[in-house]
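Hi V.,

You were right to ask for the full record rather than a summary. Here it is.
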Amino acid sequence: MRVTYNEIINFVKPYYEDKDIMHNMWHIELVKKKIDQIISISNYDINYENLILAMYFHGFIYSDEDKIKEWLLKNKFTKKEIENIAKIAWESQRSEVPETIEGKILHDAHVLEGGKNYLVVKTLITGSLRGQNLKETLKYMKNNVLDKNKCYLNETIPLCNEMNQYTNTFYEELLKGIRNEFKCGDYS
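Predicted structure:
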């Protein structure tokens, strides 16, 4: 890498300090582990440096793209490299359909970051941090999480399918338990 990990961390850390516990630097570490896992079970010809930089930037590319590009330019990256790194970072967003192989790896690592249990935990914690009650969080889960995750690599598609199935089952069992055990109101 042309820049050290310390230089990268020093640049990105302020952008993650005010993020919630599911989107801070720990989130970046989980995504990095998943990237390395995907790479270890595949045989893609990738630009690892661009992929890792995009990973660090993916959590604030949408708000501070100009600052990212300025930092990369200061660190002697060419305009073409900078545009590629930005593209990969954008491709990691869950709503995007990635085109580059690096973007597919980052996107899929972002989707699968902590495994099938993690998606449920992340949804519940994030809902709580938003100030939602359980009913609101479950509505969010139904509308924005269930069957909404998609992966693009042959190696990750089965993992994503398993995660989606697990999340759907968890959701249905939780609703059933709430309705049957506590005779609560409508949680659908």
